[in-house]
Design goal:
mainly alpha, 4 helices, 86% helix, DUF423
């Protein structure tokens, strides 16, 4: 699982920089800037989870769960914004809000992981 988070962190980082470049050079691409930000904000978190999420017990499992929720949430949010820009249609109804809610939930799960890891 750790290797998976590290790989996805790299993908999110590369896509985030790419979307930022498109957003800065294309008129009306503000949604891509938001998508880029979400990917770039969460790439280091996923990298950290990949590097340090090998802890055993409930804390490690909870940390990995939080990482998965962050990953899916950021992918949904950014994917929906990019799809709207490039294809003019949503990924699916409420994809961006669902992704945003998942990112909030993922961070909350990471808080729980921190409490469990401390014990």
């Amino acid at each position: 699982m750790s290797q998976f988070f590290i790989i996805v962190a790299g993908v999110f980082g590369a896509l985030g920089v790419s979307l930022a470049a498109v957003a800065s050079h294309t008129a009306g691409a503000t949604s891509l800037g938001s998508a880029s930000s979400m990917l770039l904000f969460h790439a280091p978190a996923l990298l950290a989870i990949g590097l340090f999420g090998r802890a055993s017990g409930p804390g490690g499992l909870t940390l990995n769960l939080g990482g998965l929720v962050l990953l899916v949430g950021a992918a949904l949010f950014a994917g929906d914004l990019a799809m709207r820009f490039y294809k003019g249609t949503a990924l699916f109804p409420m994809a961006a809000p669902t992704g945003g809610t998942m990112m909030i939930a993922g961070w909350a799960v990471i808080v729980v992981a921190g409490i469990l890891l401390r014990r």
